[in-house]
Sequence to fold (830 residues):
Amino acid sequence: MCHAHPARRLIAALLLAVLPGVALAQVLEDRRVWPGTGERTIRVISTADIDVFAPFVERIAAERPDLGIDYAVASSAELHRAIAEGASYDLAISSAMDLQFQLANDGLARAHRSDATAGLPGWARWRDLLFAFTAEPAVAVISRARFAGRDRPRNRQDLIALMRTDREAFARAVGTYDVRDSGLGYLFATQEARNSDTYWRLSELMGGLDVQLYCCSAQMIDDVASGRLALAYNVLGSYAMARIARDDRLEILALQDYATVMLRTAFIPASAEDPEGAGAVLDAILRIGMRDDADALPLPPLGAVQGPEATAFGPIRLGPGLLVHLDRLNREAFLAEWSDAMLQ
Amino acid sequence: MTDAAASRPVAQKVRRPAAGQAAAGRAASPWGFSRSIGRRLTILLAGIAAVLALVSWAMVTSFARAAAERTQDGVLAASALSIAGALGSEQGNIRLELPYSAFAMLDAIGQDRVFYRVATADDTLTGYEDLEVPRLPRTAGEVVTDTIAYRGTTVRVATVTRSVLSGQVPVRIMVSVAQTRSGVDEIAAGLSRSAAALSVGFFLLATGLGWAAARNSLRPLNEIAQAVGRRGPSDLRPVQRDAPGELAPLLAALNRLMERLGASIRRSEDFITEAAHRVRTPLATVRAQAEVALHSAESEEVKATLRRMIRAVDESSRSAGQLLDHATVGFRAETLRAEDLDLAAVIRRVTDGLAPTAEMKDIAFSVSLVPAPMRGDAILLENAVRNVLDNAVKYSPAETVVTVTLERAGSAWRITIRDEGRGFGDAAVPQLVERFRRGANVEKVVGSGLGLTIADEALRAHGGTLTLSPGDNGVGACVTLTLPAA
Ligand SMILES: Nc1ncnc2c1ncn2[C@@H]1O[C@H](COP(=O)(O)OP(=O)(O)OP(=O)(O)O)[C@@H](O)[C@H]1O
Ligand SMILES: [Mg+2]
Fold:
């Protein structure tokens, strides 16, 4: 997702760009500043790519043209570390619900109350601290070329059966998140493992097929498009759909048994320097999240959860249950089991 | 006489207490507290209801809080126990995988921040290292809950311990789960609000019922007051009613008072009659003796003396009679005893009564009457007319005519009494109505100066007026008595 409009590129005042994924040691993967008409600039740290967030900025500017936005992209772990260490950001947006929840729980979020927050459904909000504005499922993306002439699996049982019977076709051609690196991948994996034991059977099978591990959805999708991968499992659905809209080499597998749905959440860090401005930006984002039409914006609205793709488990619950998988012992145990399955 | 005297005290009995009570109430309490027993009772009951409502609200609020706190304690304990239950040892190492449910259940109360710590005596295995609890359970299986300050807020923490084998040694492991209390606060506040609404409703209902109860229990009192108030002015019979026990003493006292009052009225009536007799009888004897002496006397000097004496006796007798009449009128006028009467009949009785006296002076009455029904005291009205007609006869020379007319004048009856006598002369006319005031023109005519006073008071008691004016063409006197009709 690095293909920003040339026009938008021009607006960029600052670009401390490095290729995403290359510079993990560095705090920021990408950065862009949209100046406002006034003096104030709201510093946002987020896990969403710049292209994904840019349409949001346009809408925010329509509401509050005076506020500039300084948008920094970081991995969820980096974001977590930055906020926990008290870095001065005005708004933190992440897809790693568990890490976000932990920050809010540990007192690093500042309370915010407004008409927009009051309008959120109960499951999309935790206290006055943490607010969800998208509902994004994890999906399986396949390469049309490599699936040519095959029946599409309808559920995970079918998928397992297919991979078992045709090991050649899938050897080194299945990709998924490396949950040791990716916060979102870890979230998807732990939630799925909790909800269904199919996850472990699938993992063992993928491990046997010499699974390819990735840090990010965008790269997995790239590799499926190029045909290097036949299947990418647990890709961020919002990214995949945006990509499929302009790339017919890709297809999303409609797995009907269940889906893990992540809520992208935002909060105002306790260390925010301009909480009022941050609140205004947050409200604008929440209003976009509550839009009725799943229109052209790259990130789907909260309402998508109630749509036809509504899932057996509903969105991941914003609550103390998220802390369980972050616990050091649990994480160690889970990663050990995951490694056993994936890295045979 | 009996009726007249009786009427006054009864009326007093009925009216005075009410007025007196109101005045006393106004003076006694600035809040109008004792003005009405009903209001006082209602306010008292409302006060009691308010206190009860407040107490019940406070109790429900504290119970609700206690219940919410107990629920939270229960959930925290369950969470800590389920974590402790997941502790185990594997190949000599302590092993723990936090059960998802242990944390998910903490959502039950509300959205609260959650902290936990699993530790041995000197080492934190996992969780928040700075979560220190003030005391530990003494035995395994016991749950200790405490409220502590942690990270700038107040949290409730439940702690359990469990022993797990590490190598060959059992190690005591402590599991603490803590949660902020905003969910409890919210539940308690919500219940408290509901309780407040209920309490207000209870208060309003109780106040309404209290008001109804006060009204209902005061009804016998009002009924007795009404029964007494409805009575005629001379009705001094004892009040015979079924009264509630509390009112029996009041009723008995009231009846005793009426009895005493009746006796005292009878005594004063007897006294007045007695006094009139005592004065008049000896005077009559003196006059008769003087008359006899006058006939047998020969000396002109003695005769003159005797005539002066007879005149003085006449004056005294007249004065005594008028004084008694005045007293009677005073009694009756104070509380008027109104009954249906015909004014024409009253006048007729007076002219008939005075006819002999007039005849002796060759004075003719010219009477023109119409039927004139009205409400009033016939005895008072008769007194008024008689005194005016008496003057007309008394102050007129022989062989004249006295005209008496009764007619309707708008909403009033007008009695006009004209004579052809000396008239009021230059006397200041209104002053003639004053007590013991006689005109300069009376010459030898006997009188006490009370006649017009009596007439005026009797008319006033009926809402009427007395007007003195010169006769037609300046001859004689014209006296007009006006009385409101019906
Ligand atoms: N018809 C009248 N003609 C002339 N003078 C009158 C007439 N009526 C009353 N007066 C005058 O008014 C005075 C007051 O009258 P009033 O009837 O009060 O007293 P009185 O007649 O003198 O005494 P009594 O008490 O015996 O009637 C009289 O003394 C008299 O001077
Ligand atoms: Mg007279």
